[in-house]
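Figure S4 source data
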Amino acid sequence: MSINAIINNSLTGLFTNQTALRVTSSNIANINTPGYARQVVRQEAIVNGSTMGGVRISEIVRVVDKFLVSAVYDANASYSRYEVENSFQSRIQSLLGRPDQNNSLSGRIDNTFNALSEMALNPLSLVLKESTLSTINQFGEEIGGLAQQIQNMRLDASNQIAQQVDRINALTKRIESLNPLIIKETLTGGEPGALIEKRAQALTELSNIVDLNITDSGSNNIQVSTSSGVILVGASRKILQYTPPGSVTSSTPFSPITVHQIDNATGGLRPSNTTLDGDLKAGSLKGLLNLRDKELPEIALQLGSMAAGYADELNRVHNLNSAVPAPNSMTGVNTGLLATDRQNFTGEAVFAITNTNGDLVSKVNIDFGAIGPTMNDVVNAVNAGLGGAGTMALSNGVLSLTATAATSGVSISQVDGNESSRGGRGFSQFFGMNNLVQARAPAHYETGVSGTDAHGYTAGDTMLVEMRDGNGVKLTEYTLTIGGTSFNDILTNLNGSTLGSFATFSLSATGELVTTPKPGIDDIKLHIKTDNTSRGSTNVPLSKFFGIGDSFRTDAAVDLKANDTIANNPSQMALARFDQTAIVGGNALSIGDQTGALALSNLSGTARSFDRAGGLSATTATLSQYSANLLANLGLRAELANNSMADNLSLSEELTRKSSDISGVNLDEELGNMVIFQNAYSASARLLSTAKELFDTILQIV
């Protein structure tokens, strides 16, 4: 071997071991850096033809187990999802209060029945009436406040979604900028390890937000997509866009998260129909979307169901009762019914006029099966039967009954054993003639119409319906254009539309619009984007008439309070029952009669049917029992979120530990490597020194 060859070999050894020492020192310096993967120097012999020519570094690699890294990313995404869901569920639990406290929902319901029981003992007490109205208002404030807090939390989730989208865009931009630098270093024999480490840090953070699928394209280049295949970083980076609303109510539509390509010519974003919302499986973004579109709306729907049951039951009994003296007039709510509509009532009801002493002035017993078929026939029959002592009118969907004499009062009662009914409610309750409780939305949508009834809407009017699945992902939308003459024509239109591909529309026996998901579809949610329909002169849109979409049922918990008319005059609380055996001139309403008040207080033990609402199954229960079921369901949701978070945290920590065992820095190993590389460096230096001595000796000889 020539002296030049010795020098060359020693220099390659110096440079190689110097680099190895630098890599080792970097590993030691990052021993406490979270997520840092140690680097290893791969060496290879230099071969010149058939002659060995020293040593060189073939590559510097990060020691990672790609399977474990992918598993860690998946576990991080799942943990992050349930962590954000748990934080929101914890907030809800803090709002609910303990079930045994008076300010909880259960406590407010108990307070209402306690007040009703006390009032039943002394129905003449104005103080007790005012106290009862106050407890009703307190319940309304409690459940309405919870409903508003749920919408505020949806707004919070929406704003966090916008922040997460911005962070995703920043991280994908970082990854995109690192990819070509890493490729260049790899192809030119450089040291891409530091750049790969920076990219890995960005990927780790990104995996907390969305579930990732990472594909190695060669030369250390990667493609990043969601696990469902939506590409975030490929040949070019995708930009996500999301516009959060400024405020949120039960009917607020949320824009999707759209995935856009950058137009190379203009630098702007190309229009896109690709969305990210329905393609996420895990990550904090999935948790926020699940909260905004599923969990929180379901809780709001449960609160609405609770409020609707509370109002409906109090109104049912209150409409059976009468105040003493009876009010001069009663005006109902806008039912959307027209005078020409079929009345569709069965059974009998009594309409009466009494004086200030409760003595009967006039009454008429209406057998709805024995009179004409329309609402106009009902109005005419009542007016004829009262003989001028009182007048009924149906105007713009609102029914009213007024005594002719200013000193007289009106009452409506059911005939025992043959009670009037439309859509499962008595005549007075159906029209809301003597309601004790009011809210932003009605307590029921059993309209009592049948498919063959005239729909009453103007041909050509439109309603834009959006359909989403149970997770809030848009399935389709359809503009319903009013045509035909009957409700069956509207149902045929809906079932024949794109909406009919996912659900079947029908009317129940009580006239409620029923949406039944097609086989294979778990759940369907309808959202009304626009509705310019109007039922005759009532101004009631089709969506409001049938309560299409969860927002109407959710809003039953909003602005719930004692009826304004009664709140302004508590003496009009209906606590007595009309005596249907009374004759004209005889007493029909007794001062101090507590029959109606007792019936109100007995509601505490009266079970009613509740429809399925937001994860709560259909059931028959008392108001207190349903409230307990609601609170138990919310507690279960919180427990499941907490358990899922804890389970995925344990999995994430275990996988991270295993990955760290492979990728982490072992100080003893690095110190051992340092000794080896240092000795090798010293040996190479000694070899170079020997070569120098040989040169000096030769030069002296010459």
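Figure S5 source data
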Amino acid sequence: MEILTEINIPKNKLKTTLELYLNPTQIEEINDVLDFAEKSHKDQKRISGEPYIIHPIATAQNLAEMKLDTTTIKGALLHDVIEDCNVSYNEIEKLFGSEVAYIVDGATKLKNIDKINESSQMAIEINTPQRTRSATLRKILIAMTKDVRVVLIKLSDRLHNMQTLKYLPASRQLRIARETLDIHAPLAHRLGMNEIKWKLEDESFRYLNPENYKMISKLVARKRLERERYVNAAVESLKTELEKSNIKSLIYGRAKHLYSIYKKINRYQEIGRKFNEIHDLFALRILTDNINDCYKTLGIVHSKWRPLQGEFDDYIGNPKENMYQSLHTSVIGPGNYSMEIQIRTKEMEKIAQEGVASHWSYKEGEQNVTNGNNFEQQITWLKQILEWQQEFTEDEEYLSSVKTDILSDQVFVYTPKGDVIDLPIGATPLDFAYRVHTELGHNATRAYINNKIVALNTILQNGDLVEIKKSRKNKGPNINWLNPELNFLSSIGAQTKVRQWFNKQNKNVIEREGKKILNKELTRLSIDLSESEIAEKMDFTTTKELIEALGSGTIPITRIAEAIDRTENKIKNNNPSVQPGVLVVIGEQDLLTKIGRCCNPIHGDEIIGYLTRNQDVTVHKISCNNAKYSLKPEKIVDVNWGEYTTTYSSRLIVNAYDRVGLIRDITMVVSSEGVNIHKITSSENKGSNAVNIAMTVYTRGVQQLSKLFSRLEAIPGIESVIRINE
């Protein structure tokens, strides 16, 4: 009787929800499916001890609350029968139709056996749990490109699993929570399903970072009444203004979820602000009847409270790719506190919470008709997922590319024809070229952003217009594009395409390229080691293996310097210039320093320097009275405490074509690497615009020096950078 009660409660709840929007015939069809699922899972129990059928019912319940069509509800109830009950694809197709069968098969996990999946014709070789999981996720993503309802079921399935995760061992809890945060929550975000997204994030946060989860829960609870009083007062005040303008609206406070607050606290800590200073944990959301009222409401909000500069976004005029539409603004509200406000129509609110699911919701009065027809074609990244299926042979490599290039935060740019291309944040024109077409990437020579020529490794920003010029001959990619220090490629997909190109070259080409890379690195670093010694330090059996790995792009050039630094830990023939704890005068390494007796600063104090008549530097605390009132501004110099690692001087020669801003670009790159320039001079080559720039820099070792070389060589106009022995 107890078991019957456990089953009947979720069954009755599902029936009640379905009766709100489906007709009796459709409900009867779903009852038949539920009976079949119940018989298939008979005597099966979850780890919690409850009957297994409760899980598919809960999965269907989540989707029914979004009023999804009957096919989706049927698929949710059957999503585990192939995997757990030895029910075949053909049996489901015969009983419930091909559409339901495809969705169920698409949502089914793979087993630890080698087989060909009949529905996708995808060869799968599985021999480890991790490879099984990667292959399963790949299979689901591919199935999703043909019918988005596959992933709607998987997200609902994952949500219920996360809500009952406490019954699993700790190791499985962590693995599942990490996978959920890395893949399922971002996938829900890309599909616009924010309600499920934040629930998945919070449940993952609970297990991945339990201490911070509990801490933030307590902080939010402690401040809840105070914030609610503030928000309620703001709501009443704004409601009065909108009523005066005859704008019908619904206004309420929107509570931020815990994981969002955790990320916001981290951002605040970076700029020195505390939790008590976060006043937008509750945002105001205003729902209107139409778009015109949205913009009228925005005007009223901005006239009532001062808007914060740079904090307005119009996602109604420029919807996000996941269909999200809303007006976002931040204002200085009552009490001089910042407050976030979102303005949208009621229809936009439904889409904002349910995303793609709203396009599959059942429309009243239309028999089995949904709003999802051909919807998949509207989401360009679904096409990308399908294309990568042909390009990536390894499941884990494929999944890594999807996580980095599609499920991470995106930047949206335009082609010259006005098409929108979405790329991971940090992407470059070269990433853009490979996303448009592999051959365009391989043969890219110049890039234009907003009609201005830029380097191929320039970081793209939202709204940029990007154009790529390709070489007339098929020259192929440059091996340096795989150098992580140069930041040419941020997307895994583009990096994989470059490696695939080099792997397809014949052995002679690979060996020639590898030898060229090795010799160049040893020459520019002025390292007196043989090729065989380098191979040994890098754990290669032979020099040939090292050369082939470099030439094929299997290992980056930076590994050479890493290996030398790891074993040598110094730059040859150089004496240390800065010992632990000493004072450094920025830009003037040879100046003598002494401690001011008036304040006696010690290592770690905030300090300034004062240039004396004897051309040495006296160092004072910033708080010292002498520093505040006695020192002449023109005599003040920048000083800092020396690093705890020894640094070494290196003499560099930069060969370049002279242009306006060249020296500025060089010094900016050197400075950004935390490297001090002791001396810099330049000389022109008569009869040409070539210039030689000599500079002495202080680095911590070969690895930092190699990275600096790579960064300098990426500057437009620089031909080469080498180190010479003084």
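Residues 455 and 716 are 7 Å apart (CA to CA). The first helix runs from residue 2 to 18.
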